[in-house]
Amino acid sequence: MKEYLKHHEWQIIEEGLDPHYNKISESVFSIGNGRMGQRANFEEEYSGETLRGSYVAGVYYPDKTRVGWWKNGYPEYFAKVLNAPNWIGIHVSIDNQKLDLAKCKVEDFKRVLDMRTGLLSRSFAATLGDGKKVRVESKRFCSMAHGEVGAIRYAITPLNFSAKGLLSIYVDADVVNKDSNYDEKFWEEVYKDASEGRAVVTAQTKKTNFHVTTGMRYHIETDGKKANADRINTELREKFAGNVIQVALQEGKETVVYKYAAILSSENHPKDQLVTAANKVLDEAFHKGFDALFDEHAKVWQHKWEESDITIEGDIAAQQGIRFNIFQLMQTYTGEDERLNIGPKGFTGEKYGGSTYWDTEAYCLPFYLSTAEPKVARNLLVYRYKHLGKAIENAKKLGFKDGAAFYPFVTMNGEECHNEWEITFEEIHRTSAMAYAIRDYIEYTGDKNYFTEYGLEVLIGIARYWSQRVNWSAEKSKYVILGVTGPNEYENNVNNNWYTNYLGAWTLRFAQQAVDYVKNNNLNRYNEIVSKTSFREKEETDRWKEIVEKMYYPVDEKRNIILQQDGFMDKEILRVSELKKEDRPLNQKWSWDRILRSCFIKQADVLQGIYLFEDDFDIETIRRNYDFYEPLTVHESSLSPCVHVILASKLGYKSSAYELYLRTARLDLDDYNNDTEEGCHITSMAGTWMSVVKGFGGMRVRDGKLHFNPFIPDQWKSYSFRIEFRGRVLKIKVSKDGVETKLESGEPLVIDVKGEDVQLRK
Amino acid sequence: MKEYLKHHEWQIIEEGLDPHYNKISESVFSIGNGRMGQRANFEEEYSGETLRGSYVAGVYYPDKTRVGWWKNGYPEYFAKVLNAPNWIGIHVSIDNQKLDLAKCKVEDFKRVLDMRTGLLSRSFAATLGDGKKVRVESKRFCSMAHGEVGAIRYAITPLNFSAKGLLSIYVDADVVNKDSNYDEKFWEEVYKDASEGRAVVTAQTKKTNFHVTTGMRYHIETDGKKANADRINTELREKFAGNVIQVALQEGKETVVYKYAAILSSENHPKDQLVTAANKVLDEAFHKGFDALFDEHAKVWQHKWEESDITIEGDIAAQQGIRFNIFQLMQTYTGEDERLNIGPKGFTGEKYGGSTYWDTEAYCLPFYLSTAEPKVARNLLVYRYKHLGKAIENAKKLGFKDGAAFYPFVTMNGEECHNEWEITFEEIHRTSAMAYAIRDYIEYTGDKNYFTEYGLEVLIGIARYWSQRVNWSAEKSKYVILGVTGPNEYENNVNNNWYTNYLGAWTLRFAQQAVDYVKNNNLNRYNEIVSKTSFREKEETDRWKEIVEKMYYPVDEKRNIILQQDGFMDKEILRVSELKKEDRPLNQKWSWDRILRSCFIKQADVLQGIYLFEDDFDIETIRRNYDFYEPLTVHESSLSPCVHVILASKLGYKSSAYELYLRTARLDLDDYNNDTEEGCHITSMAGTWMSVVKGFGGMRVRDGKLHFNPFIPDQWKSYSFRIEFRGRVLKIKVSKDGVETKLESGEPLVIDVKGEDVQLRK
């Protein structure tokens, strides 16, 4: 844990440059706009420790997997989010001395991320080898208003000299992925061009053949007036295009480079029109100018905050933490493009590759449902609908048939691209996370038409998977599900993981509901789906019912609790509090077999199930299970604590809820797990939001009605959050004195606050 | 399955060169002498498909492992048997045309392995591009009498021309391992020298720094007289030394190259004396000459066959098969060097790396016990004794303490070098295979002193492992063993694998016996061991007893059988006969999860336990378990059928026993599994031997007495085998008419044949 960042309500602030923290800051100060993102690398050269990273949504590379012992059924490739061409580069040299913060004396270094406006600023004074001292201020943003535009204002002021400055302003596709399995470069040049004031490079990815065009225009001002360059050379190298400009830097006078970048991908433009389109984007940005572009950008952020802000009074660190989580989620996914999704590191790093895990459905969806228009969450569902064909292929590869759909554990295009048998093949509950997301969406929005349009097809596929995946145990006279890994990945290849069995059977019931709904409401569409999916309604739903009726659920009768899986009570039951400090985290200290045979739980498993199907259990059942499982849970997944916060809040375990909350809220800001340099934990940030809104705020939707049952942690004066719900924006404020509810926009509605109806109108 | 090899009692014969079979033949026709081995590669150049392989016992390289998802506790390296310097090379070119069987017309190709004398011969007529036709006959052997000597007789006869021939005769350390993880070369040059008639190269392995010196001398004769070379050039390149000789080849006259090679390793010589020693070995071999060397070599083989031959009358294919198995075992391990062991591919290929698996103790030991002097088997045990320190380190890495010993799954030097958590960490029964081997050895030889000298220390270490590895199940009020993989590797991470639990508890009882024996027979040595191992006798053996008393064994009460592991009966119980042909072999057709949740068994598991502890079970228990488990077993390990043969024989299931036997006897000769090109299945060959002797022959040792209970498969006229037993050599011959027993050497003894005492004397 590190605490080098300053606390501030709206800003992330780093003062002083500590090279050891640079890669952490590069992650934390990342900016993005849902279409692209950029780590907080320096514009100028930097020979110190850095992880250069620029990312374009949807552009990936299927890197050949590296695996020790190949198992039949493994995919050949692991899809990686690509490090995309560099658009931020502005190299500076003064009298043949490069400006490189690893090699000069740096004073007054400050890096600020303004979350309210999505602006990254950096300033410092650097003394070069010969004593020349220069002040630099840079600002940049990825435009939220124009998804293909990035803009930089880079200002240089000589403090004790006048001299010739050489500026290299460029775009560069000669970039590498640090996580490349075979040290390969993934980009090839297609086109490049540079002329005075502009440059463009089109590069294509190997194998996947995505084209990305990265272009730039710039202008230079001194003291607010166009600067006259002494000389301008164009520079063209393999995958690289730029200008080298010689300018006169005058003591005390600010020379400013305004650099406008266009980042366009063949996902959004025909390949042969990419360059033309990029030039158009560039010209518009250039003529608009930095300030006007920034105003447009800031307005979008203003709107986003109006939809989604959470305020916390009395605890600036907590306020900063929750806003940082919301900020990152907002800039990772805007919901405008149904082909995109939420990678575990968003645009802040390469780690984990792939773009999509079940994290999206299980953790992120509720955030977008409540903080944006319904389209945003809906597009996340449609993303999976579009991958249905691939999910059916994935299932086929594992021996399933007749349209059974097995959604991938990690994917870019719907195809499984993860290679670890105990996860890839066995962590099967994820396929039903897609079903649960449909329920979540419909329950929240009331948009049952989603069943008709997309949902039913997906549900039939998933239901077919389960109906083939169970087997009849003659021993138990029940249907069982053997050889799975549950959400708790510290158990592998277990039999009858309760969460998996419960979710599987629930999916069959839910699919039946969808069948009934569509059949009763749109028979034509129903018949269309029956024909498209070769659905044999009677035969298939009879089997679903049979499985639902006879599904086996492991229980511990003595303790009257749910059993995580068969045989769990054969373990030595210890408590996390009995572990020695040097044993933690288990996954870095214990060998895998020791973890597996221990009772310790990586992340909520039975409790995850109870959280998802809360209304199926009475409060005492929830309490018994929570009291049993929470002390065994090490929360070594960032996705775990939020579920426990929500249940602890429900059970009135206030201090426990707050304590668990703290683990997630500043996870990256304080680099709790010593891994933020690889990127921020984006998907778990939605869990932090849930901890406040569903945990402390007690928000639920039941039968179309919003419920709140809030409490306030002792450490806070008040907190408030905004919720979008069926065309309204509500604000809920919780203080020591009570709960204030306010309808900020939309039609009147009745909500339930602590068991009582409250009528809201504007 | 392929059947291109001719049937013959003593020889393996290939007629005609089919390039598709060349790599298979290279494996099958391999020769070795326990110190080194050589695949049946051609002496001359060959540009067709080939796997060049030469191996020196004990010389390995720790190749950096390649693994997809690293687990804490994995070893960094995987020890590989190295492809060692090439000593066979004789390149031939005639009028600038290379002799390369992939590029000329080949007639009368014949490859013969004479198993009686360990001689590889090859002959062919080749027509070069310009029509020149030449006949070549080559013979070679790895001397069984002089472990560091290889000899080649390579004869060339022009059939339709006279011309200048250019012969390149060399040794070459510039070789690669096909299974290198990062395409690295593992050898570096230390020294090389060439002069007229001789050449030598010393190379060292990276990281492990083994030095291997490979030298050669040669002479050339035409028509039985020393040939005069027109020109001799020495040739020296990186890691390569040789001579290039120009000789006049005369139509119809045979020119013969006699090449003598010396292969010496720093395992047996000081590094600085390797070259001197190699030259001495070379000179001796050279002066002895090919024929005299061969006579000495053949005599050793004659003696080996006298000890170990099995004859089968009435079935030449079976006769050839069993002799091939014995031949390979004999040339893989001679028992002369306690630092060596038996790799799964012996000296016939690279696959699997490492040198030592539990195969040695579980499958190979009985063969060497019965077919060689006791020292040979004893050295296999001492090998593990010498690795005890490493086994204790291996255990420590996985969280065990106080001298617990966990023997590796794969090793070269005692250190674990395998990376697959479900095997490396969880297939724990292998550590007790070491204990069982001690029992096997003592039971067979009567040498109880082994306890005192080595056994007890090893047994204390292994017992300590088990006493820490079990845990108390409050649920069952029993000790349980969680998270293991049994011998049946088609189950991973299961709880209470019966075989593992049984073997674990047995080990504790056996360790107690060892403690008692040594304490009662050699108190001084006992005290020495107590002090060396910090053995707290009372406390530790009390715990052993407690565990033995309260060990949990899964059973199926309904069927009155042993349960392979907890939960096994939840599976859908099918029979192998219900599988479709296209589903086999499962490990190539089904994804891993499907295999895991199926009932199908890769290799004997419960039955392996019953086989090892046969006398603990009454015949009806054995029958019930066999009848249940055999139909579920796919035998996708070559180590599986032999156990079933032995039990089926005992149960009187004659045709079933014979059928299972057939799967192993010609496994490599007929390339059953399509994988012989990677090397022969050496360790499972011992299982084939067991099938005959312990299966059909029904041989057992009980309380120091030999028992036989033979039957003869309907397909055979008779079979016979020889057994070494406590200083005697016995011959047992079984025919339709009955059993003949004969004492060939040694003191009189009483044996039990079909329940009756038979007095044997010479």
UniProtKB/TrEMBL annotation, chains A, B:
<dbReference type="GO" id="GO:0016787">
    <property type="term" value="F:hydrolase activity"/>
</dbReference>
<dbReference type="InterPro" id="IPR017045">
    <property type="entry name" value="Malt_Pase/Glycosyl_Hdrlase"/>
</dbReference>
<dbReference type="InterPro" id="IPR005194">
    <property type="entry name" value="Glyco_hydro_65_C"/>
</dbReference>
<dbReference type="InterPro" id="IPR005195">
    <property type="entry name" value="Glyco_hydro_65_M"/>
</dbReference>
<feature type="domain" description="Glycoside hydrolase family 65 N-terminal">
    <location>
        <begin position="13"/>
        <end position="266"/>
    </location>
</feature>
<feature type="domain" description="Glycoside hydrolase family 65 C-terminal">
    <location>
        <begin position="699"/>
        <end position="760"/>
    </location>
</feature>
<dbReference type="Pfam" id="PF03633">
    <property type="entry name" value="Glyco_hydro_65C"/>
</dbReference>
<dbReference type="InterPro" id="IPR008928">
    <property type="entry name" value="6-hairpin_glycosidase_sf"/>
</dbReference>
<dbReference type="Pfam" id="PF03636">
    <property type="entry name" value="Glyco_hydro_65N"/>
</dbReference>
<dbReference type="InterPro" id="IPR011013">
    <property type="entry name" value="Gal_mutarotase_sf_dom"/>
</dbReference>
<feature type="domain" description="Glycoside hydrolase family 65 central catalytic">
    <location>
        <begin position="323"/>
        <end position="690"/>
    </location>
</feature>
<protein>
    <submittedName>
        <fullName>Glycoside hydrolase family 65 protein</fullName>
    </submittedName>
</protein>
<comment type="similarity">
    <text>Belongs to the glycosyl hydrolase 65 family.</text>
</comment>
<dbReference type="InterPro" id="IPR037018">
    <property type="entry name" value="GH65_N"/>
</dbReference>
<dbReference type="InterPro" id="IPR005196">
    <property type="entry name" value="Glyco_hydro_65_N"/>
</dbReference>
<dbReference type="Pfam" id="PF03632">
    <property type="entry name" value="Glyco_hydro_65m"/>
</dbReference>
<keyword id="KW-0378">Hydrolase</keyword>
<dbReference type="InterPro" id="IPR012341">
    <property type="entry name" value="6hp_glycosidase-like_sf"/>
</dbReference>
